[in-house]
Amino acid sequence: MAGYNLQNEEKARIKNTSYDFDPLAKYVCHNCGRGDVEECMLLCDGCDDSYHTFCLLPPLSEIPKGDWRCPKCVAVEVSKPTEAFGFEQAQREYSLQQFGEMADQFKSEYFNMPVHLVPTSFVEKEFWRIVSSIDEDVTVEYGADLHTMDHGSGFPTTTSLNLHPGDVEYAYSSWNLNNLPVLEGSVLGYIHADISGMKVPWMYVGMCFATFCWHNEDHWSYSINYLHWGEPKTWYGVPGSKAIAFEETMKLAAPELFHSQPDLLHQLVTIMNPNILMNAGVPVYRTDQHAGEFVVTFPRAYHAGFNQGYNFAEAVNFAPADWLKMGRECVLHYSHLRRFCVFSHDELVCKMALEPEKLSPLIAAATYQDMLQMVDTEKKLRKNLLDWGVTSAEREAFELLPDDERQCEICKTTCFLSAITCSCISDTLVCLRHYADLCKCPPNKHTLRYRYTLDELPRMLQKLKIKAEAFDVWLNKVKDSLDPGVPSTLTLNELKGLLTEAEEKKFPKCELLTTLANAIEDAEKCASVIRQLDSTMARTRTRNSNDRKYHLNLEELNQFIGEIDSLACVLDEAKIVKDLLNESNRFEENSKRLLQTPLNECSVDDIEKCLEHGEAICIELPSLSSMRERLRQAKWMAEVNVVRRRPEIIKLETIKHLLTTGENILPDLLVENELQELRRLLYVSEDWEERAKALLNHPSPDLMAEIDKLLSEAEDIDTYLPTEEFLTEAMTNVKQWMKDLDEINAAEFYPYIGVVENLIQKGRSIPLPIPNVSDLEQYVVAAHSWKDKTSRTFLRKNSSVTLMEALSPRTPSALTTASKTRRKNSDEDPHQFTVTNEMDPVDVVNTFKEAEERELNGLKAVRAANMLKTFNAGDDYKFCVCQRGASGLMMRCELCRDWFHSTCVTLPKIANIKIKGNFSAVALRMGFKDCKFLCPVCYRTKRPRLETILSLLVSLQKLFVRIPEGEALQCLTERAMTWQDRVKQLLQKSEFEAAVAKLSLLSQKNSEAAARQKTEKIISTELKKAASNPDLQQHLQEIASCSGLSSEDNCDSNSCHTYNNDGVECAKVTSSFSDDTVDEHAYSLHLPNVDDNECILHLSAEARQQLEEVLMEGDLLEVSLDETFHLWKLLQASRDPDKEVVLMDFDAPNKMSAKKGRKRRSEENEATKKLKQIKTDLDKKITKRKIKDVKDNVRKRTDIGSNGGRRRGRGRQTQSSSEEDETEEKCAAVSCLLPASQEVDWVQCDGGCDQWFHMACVGLSAQEINEDEDYICIACSQSNSAFGSLQQSPESQSSDNPLSPDSTQPSSLQKDGV
User: Fold this and answer.
1) Is residue 1238 within 8 Å of residue 1190, measured between CB atoms?
2) Is 1298 a residue whose pLDDT tops 60?
């Protein structure tokens, strides 16, 4: 027996040799030659030479710990040649007994105890301590890799001499490691050569600490190790999936070893502590293998271990079908490491592909997949070679060459499919992956050596595919068909096809084939019997039914079906027999049940179906005749039961027919009883019909009682009586009508008109006379009369709403402005207030309250949406009932807050007045009449006064029926009166009382001013006449003195203008409402001048909100109330005229002449002359009034020529002239302030319209503008949006606010060049 010696080369020492020199030389320093300073003298552990620490290069500061070598010894050690790292072959040989004695002695002496008492954990701990120790050496021997062909096997074999009978079983066992590698399922069995260690087992005799280092099996195959006897063997394993991580960790731990030997892990000389591997993230698993146990390693799984003591084990490799894929990866891995292969993987695959019939199905499938990859790779490699330029090729039988002659010179791979050679080196070849590394010769010097052509490989692959797939499919089908637990699905022909397929394709003989043949034979016998039976049954059906002969009974039929069910296939003919048996059994069961059932409980359908079923079965059944007799009796009884259960269909003719039929059937107790009852019923029915007809032909005074008596008798007669149906229906309708009338009279409240009308209609449809119908008709007529009167009171002519809609709160859809949307939603609105017949007054009131809440909420939403609408450029808001954009004269509805065109709806009279001042001021002057606007959607009825409605309610109380419109009117009246109480409480607050008082004072002042204005106009007319007629001057003085009019009274800011020209003081009294300012409405003639600021009431935000909410609800009421008008006056007087706009004219700027202002310069001189003449005439006759002069040095705008220059503001004198001149002198501002002064400053718009404006009217003065500034009016600055409101106050607006219905933008000044 051979062994190995573990050497630790780092601990090897160089033995001293004898030197011929003075012995004292070792006590002196070899550098300086002195022997002093002994405490610094350092002795070499290799040659014993002495050196001072300070004489060394570099000098040492202290004596080093451990061994130290001098520079000479280091040089000698370094100069030694490099030796391979690994185990050393021992020189001594042992017998098995000698090795065991040595092993036990070593372990016992080492641990100082008997070998069997040393724990395995203690041995393991000591082993890794020794491996990790640097200073300690332990030498052990290991009898490893002993060939069984040389030394025998631990397993009995068939070639063993004197084989014991008990060992025969083990000699042929599959677990015998001599048999395992070449079993049918192992790929290694197709390698004909005996590969030692792979196909032929190796034996291992171990001792304590004998180690097998980290490694994995050749070609990454499986391995199996069996411990025959001895002490345990400790294993450590790393999964194959973590092999790369394991290798990287080992290389990082000892890079210098792997640099010199890249395939170091394949030399079985490297050991590393598993803890180091696990710390690096590599999983390691351990186990202790005891005697009699197998250990199996999987492909590429690294494993290592050591022996706990003296033992004997045996190991071998094997390769099942799934190894082929891993084997190909291993060959590629070997080529990267330039490691020699044990055998050629491609040669093994091709050898199996050439003999597919010898392969097992599983191996054939795995070989096909591996060869498919091999062929694909070979095609690519040969294509690359062809592209490189190699065109010469020769066939080579690589399997005949020794492995060392067909190994790639570069990667050491054993070539088989192909190789490349060159003429310059004929004895060297490389694989196709390294064709460029062979030599530097051109491609045409190279030759491809190939084993198979690319056409031959696919043919081999196809045969392998057929073999792999065919047997697998066949095997599965046979197993399924013969498995008793799996239902049979194959037919007899398909089962025969499986047997034929196995014979044709020469599948290996097995037990399944025999079983399959027996199953087919049994199936054919059963099919033959069924065909004979079916032929006999077909012939029998053609014979007379009275002369039938059958040979099968039910018991024989059951036994035959049992045999058919046990077959391995499905017979098409089996359905005939099974159907016959099922039908026979079912008929016998049904017939037995029906014959035992009483006649009155039998169903005719059941008997007919059962009898039909039995006659269709080709087996003689004894129950058929009894079932035919039972059917006749059941049919007659069924007919009698039908007419007895439904007396309304039993006519006299039917009874007579049943009597005739029942007397012709066989006697039966139940049949006789039914015949007697039918005879009695016929007599009673005929007698009742005669008496009923006599009563109808000659009615008595007590008709109703007589009819009730007859109907009571008819209830006891179970036949159909035509006269009974007529009388019953009539009496039922009369009683029901009277019951309905009594319920109406007994109710707490009067019925609705619809209920009464329905009752009248029902009474008219009854053929018998009913009292009280005429009274009900009178009640309905009176109700309709009241409804018509109410409609005339509320609804306008051709109104689009009904009376109920007008009296009910509006639905959310009815609040929208768009007419199409309202019309569409009105019919489908679920929120419409409705009154049903089941409602009492409390429910009506509650429903009305809920509708009120929805109306208020909906209106608030509509108001909020409408108030968000703006007139900015780009906005696409729609207004009015026409749903179009802003244009022309528009006014805002006080309720829904939407804007309406004057062309679409009728606006109040104030909209037709040419307003000077804000809207509130003008409304105050008009007494707020014809100033408030409600759109047609909000103001939809005539809105009668409350007194008129109260008279209608009085008439309503006199009616005897309830009308939904009346209920709604009552709720509306209650709502209006409740609202009046709220208004009364609101106006009692101090803030509102003060506002009402102030508004009353303003109204009174306005009335007085209107009267005074009328007088002043008369005087003004006389003054005009006096100015042209000197004879009337004296008369004018008298009128003025008589009327008490003074010059101060007549000269207010609007009616009197004073001039100071050339030092002559003159005055002229004119009317502020001259002919050019009079619009089409007469109100414009009577508007006195009142300060606009006095017309505004100042209310707190809370009061203002309360006022708006109360007024909103008041405007919703379809009732005319004075409080609504009073609240609106307060609200309008408290509005800011500049922010809360209600009237706007978007066409106002277009109505003025574009060149109006530019004509004034040319007409100034003529007008001035006329004024001077008039002033001179009036100077001595009219009371003079001294007017303060305006600033003499007023900045005046001058014209800068007509060639593109700007036209600035100008100072000019106010003058009077004819009506035409006065029109030309009018300011273009919407709300002209009519400034009165000797000299008034004007400014012209530079934005494009060229209109003239008073500076005071646009919020400017002559001191505030410069020559280089441009003035742009509101209309030009907002050319893409609305033009502003009619009551716009420019000086109170901010240019930062966007234009909206409640706000306007002022005109702007722009610097030149900006």
Assistant:
1) yes
2) no
